[in-house]
Amino acid sequence: MVESFFLTNDHFFEAEEEEISGWFGFIQLLWELGTFLWVITLMGSFYLGLLGHMNNAELKYLEHFCCR
Where do transmembrane segments lie in this chain (predicted)? Predict the structure, then answer.
């Protein structure tokens, strides 16, 4: 049964490349860039917020392992 599944559904495992061009490609590129920048900003603000709530002992612990 497994062999017949693999034999009959070969197209399922092949990656289809879709051709993206024109305005749709440009809009998709902007969307992906915006999503990437949003995630980086979110991670950065979380990191800075975390540093703002640490006390001196925790910062020294972090510096010991990260900033040699």
Answer: 20-50
